[in-house]
Design brief:
By secondary structure, the chain is of the alpha+beta class. The chain folds into three domains: 173 residues, Uridine Diphospho-n-acetylenolpyruvylglucosamine Reductase, domain 3; 91 residues, Alpha-Beta Plaits, CATH 3.30.70; 82 residues, 2-Layer Sandwich (Alpha-Beta Plaits), CATH 3.30.70. The chain is built from 15 helices and 18 strands. It has an eight-stranded antiparallel sheet, sandwiched between helices. Strands 4-5-9-7-8 form a five-stranded antiparallel sheet. Strands 1-3-2 form a three-stranded parallel sheet, with no helix packed on it. Strand 7 and strand 8 form a beta hairpin.
Length: 390
């Protein structure tokens, strides 16, 4: 078992990393360690460094819509703090209660509202992180707009802790909408519902979230057993009423079912991946992305392979849920054959073992390796965690 390190300050975090580097000892890092199934197989490490004691609120300016917290604070706790000022941080990642701020950023997790609010890279305005050579590096600041230039903190987002360890993060936050409502369009016809999606995306009324669930995914989250568009509209009460009326007319014209759904449905969507792996221990969550014009092709490929599919239908990214190992291999091969981007986002160690998680290569991989060499030339930090590539 690795020896546990639990720094309580940024300075202790810096010193712990420098000590490990002096020993040339490998390190596994994490916050709440809720995402151990995500990323590449975890290599055996000498130390296990957790940031859960770095959990303080450092600064909060509601009038400026900015907040600074230590990276070990749970995202759910941060949103409870913001709730007191009727504000929120709309990242909506899986493992909503357990995930820490640092863990969410390290895995670049986001959720159903990304179309309206963006991803972590759009919300982070500053960061402080510790490096293996014993430095605390500050990037960005506490203002929503900074001077254009290289933002080192952005390198940490999505790096799975393979470069450095976040100590604190500054965010821009958002006012909570006055009103919101959720709706569902349902149809047995893929093409009919694709037409509804196109009409919504080209219309004047633009929802905060628009997710596509194929019949298997819709049934899994308890919505229906048909192709479904799940939509969140927000704004003033008058705006949400206008959404409801316009969408009801659209559904009638298109000949699809339409209903108002409870907002709790989004929590089921948010936690779909973790729940799938809990119920399918030999299964996998595959991250996919494509262009709008190929969304139907993606859904067909995944469905023919026996998978469930849940997509952010406004930008054609999302997850394919494979029930077991062989299906995961089959659908990844099919996606890559058709030049649709897919990578194995989360699975058990047994499933990860003989699957190419991410087909990174060429100049992209070369650049990543050079950055890794600058931060961690001895490959001590979270070895293999970046989808088995770094």
């Amino acid at each position: 078992m690795p020896e546990s390190l639990e720094p309580a300050t940024a300075e202790e975090l810096r010193d712990a990393l420098r000590g490990c580097s002096d020993e040339q000892a490998s390190i596994e890092t994490g916050g709440g360690f809720s995402k151990r199934l995500a990323g590449g197989p975890i290599a055996r490490a000498r130390y296990r460094l957790g940031t859960s004691r770095l959990n303080r609120l450092l600064a909060y300016e509601p009038a400026d819509l900015t907040v600074s917290v230590e990276a070990g604070m749970r995202l759910a706790e941060l949103n409870r703090i913001l709730e007191n000022s009727n504000q929120f941080l709309p990242l909506d990642p899986p493992f909503a209660e357990q995930a820490t701020v640092g863990g969410v950023l390290a895995t670049n997790s986001s959720g159903y509202r990304r179309r309206r609010y963006g991803t972590a890279r759009d919300m982070v305005i500053g960061m402080r992180f510790a490096t293996l050579d014993g430095k605390l590096v500050s990037s960005g600041g506490m203002v929503v707009k900074n001077v254009t230039g290289l933002d080192m903190g952005k390198l940490m987002i999505g790096s799975f802790g393979t470069l450095a360890v976040m100590a604190s993060v500054n965010f821009k936050v958002f006012p909570k909408p006055e009103s919101s409502a959720s709706f569902q369009f349902r149809s047995a016809s893929l093409e009919t519902l694709l037409g509804v999606r196109r009409e919504i995306l080209s219309g004047v009324l633009q929802p905060a979230a628009i997710d596509w669930l194929d019949p298997r995914a819709a049934k899994f989250v308890g919505l229906s057993d048909s192709h479904s568009l799940l939509i969140e509209a927000s704004g003033t009460a008058a705006v949400t009423r206008r959404f409801s009326e316009a969408f009801a007319h659209l559904a009638a014209r298109a000949g699809v079912e339409f209903a108002t759904v409870q907002p709790e449905a989004w929590r089921d969507v948010q936690e779909c991946g973790p729940k799938w792996l809990a119920e399918h221990p030999d299964g996998a969550v595959i991250r996919v992305s494509t262009v709008h014009s190929r969304l139907g092709e993606l859904l067909q490929l995944a469905g023919d392979s026996g998978c469930a599919t849940l997509l952010r239908a406004g930008n054609s990214t999302g997850v394919v849920l494979a029930p077991e190992h062989e299906t995961a291999c089959r659908v990844l091969d099919a996606l890559r054959l058709h030049r649709i981007h897919g990578r194995l986002e989360a699975a058990s160690e047994n499933v990860k073992g003989d699957i190419q998680q991410w087909d990174a290569g060429g100049s992209e991989l070369d650049l990543m390796q050079r950055i890794k060499a600058d931060f961690d030339p001895l490959l001590l930090l979270n070895r293999g965690r970046l989808y088995g590539v770094l």
